[in-house]
Amino acid sequence: MRPGTLSLRLFLLTSLWALFSVALVAFVLSQAYRQNAERRFAELVTANLYNLLGSVQADADGKLVGQPDLRDPRYTVFGSGWYWEVSALSSPANRLASTSLVDGRITAPKDLPFDANYQRNWTYTDNRGAQLTAVEARVFLGSGSEIYSFRVTGNRSELSGEVASFTRTMIVLLALFGLGFVIASFVIVTIGLRPVSRASRRLSDIREGRAERLEGRFPSEIQPLIDETNALIESNRSVIERARTQVGNLAHSLKTPLAVLKNEAGGAPAELRKIILDQTGLMQHQVQAYLDRARIAARHATVTSRTDVGPVLERLCRVIGKLNPALTIIPPGPRISIIFGGEQQDFEEIAGNLLENAARFAREKIKVWAQREMVGDKAMMTLVIEDDGPGMTAEEAKMALGRGMRLDETTPGSGLGLAIVTDIVSEYGGKLTLDRSEMGGLRCMVALPAR
User: Fold this and answer.
1) Which is more confident, 270 or 56?
2) How many Å apart are CA 27 and CA 9, to the nearest integer?
């Protein structure tokens, strides 16, 4: 899952949705559990109040009597926060209290009203710092007119501990669920988008020259795109082939008149014959050069060509060496493994022209080497041919790349070699550079696309 890919985008979106959903579920569940726990806690304290109301009476003199048992040992532990207290409003000394309260008091706000059943609830903090929930009811006992206050409290710290324990357990479980969801999303996205990756690899095979069309069966959602891509490739190939045919027909129609002119020049005066032969020869070279350029452009546009550089260079070095036995030609290493992204014929044209030029001017030695490198995200290869000849100045190197320009008229040739190399290299989006070699002569460095 590389940056910018559809798989990474889907994985991140599903993962973010999983995290958001887990967080939302955790919040909702924790709030629901807290509310439920609060309700149960309030019901427990109220139930203890009703139990207390049924356990305390007033005697004939109005004194409180009874032995309340709320069935909860926390009311017997001093300072537990679980207290109960019964007292007469007119005589606070007439009082019963839980063992946990001893001589303390359950304080109530003075301005808190009672409901229709003469009950009220509030929360306060005792002298030990514990937060308590209290409930109070005021009733008549017996046949007298004395009003008695019944108060019961519960310690909220236990409620908070219960909620915190539930929250921790829930977070652990939901975290495991979220992790499982993220892992499942990764697997689902990887498997679900596998046909897209397969199509991408097939396209790469076409671009690298290992295939000419997208083969194989794909899901129904992708198959129309595959079919349209194959149709586009076929249409592009047909257009290129028609263009090549038309250029070939044009070149053929020009070759015949040029051949007639050359034949007719034989009966012309010597000076005129020389001009006609030179110009018709140049025209034939031009026609052939543009034919080659059309062929190169057509082949390069199909992006299905690939050439192993090593064997081609070794063969060319061997041929040039036989033609020039006085020269020492150093070929690339035997294990060179570079693939040129183009036709073998075009690479032979480039390397052959440069080797012929080097052999024409070298004194004793020619060195040939190549390397592959990445330029950004594009694979490129560099072919270097250098000699120990006289070399060129920067101005001469610039002039030498011109079509038909020859700096040395004493050697045979049309002067089109470097210009043809430049044309082929430019068609492939490469670059030809001429500079001084460490051997003292000329260094020709060609950058071309690699596979």
Assistant:
1) 56
2) 27
What phi and psi values does residue 131 have, to the nearest 5 degrees?
A: -90, 125
pLDDT band at 36; cut points 50, 70, 90: very high
pLDDT-wise least confident of 285-289, 293-297, 314-318, 442-446: 293-297
Query: How many Cβ atoms from other residues are within 10 Å of residue 17's Cβ?
Result: 12
The DSSP 8-state label assigned to residue 241 in this structure reads H
Rounded CA gap, 91 and 278, in Å? 139
Residues 6+ apart with CB under 8 A from 94: 62, 63, 64, 87, 88
β-strands 307-308, 95-97 pairing: unpaired
Tell me the average pLDDT across 343-369: 89
Residue type (1 letter), 440: G
Asked if 135 and 149 count as a contact pair (C-beta separation under 8 A), the reply is: no
Give me the count of residues in the chain. 451
Query: Which of 55, 124, 130, 120 is closest to 100 using CA atoms?
Result: 130
- In the predicted model, is pLDDT for residue 410 greater than 50? no
Provide the residue type at 202 as one letter: R
The answer to whether 296 and 347 are in contact (CB under 8 A) is no
Domain positions in the chain: 26-162, 223-301, 307-449
CB atoms within 10 A of CB 347: 25
Token reading at 98: 């839980």
In this prediction, residue 412 carries a pLDDT of 45
Work out the angle between the directed axes of helices 344-361 and 417-427 (0-180°, nearest 10).
Answer: 150
415 contacts 405 by C-beta, under 8 angstroms = yes
Architecture of domain 307-449: 2-Layer Sandwich (3.30)
Model pLDDT for residues 238-291, shown as the tens digit of each residue: 877 777 777 777 777 777 787 777 777 777 777 777 888 778 777 777 777 666
For 237-357, strand residue ranges (E) read 307-308, 328-330, 339-340
In whole angstroms, give the CA distance from residue 157 to residue 105. Answer: 19
| Distance, CA of 216 to CA of 264 (rounded, Å) | 60
Whole-model pTM: value is 0.48
CB atoms within 10 A of CB 275: 13
Q: In what order do the strands lie in the sheet with 431-436?
A: 328-330, 365-375, 378-387, 442-449, 431-436
Token pair of 250 as six digits: 């044009």
Q: What is the chain's Cα-based Rg?
A: 49
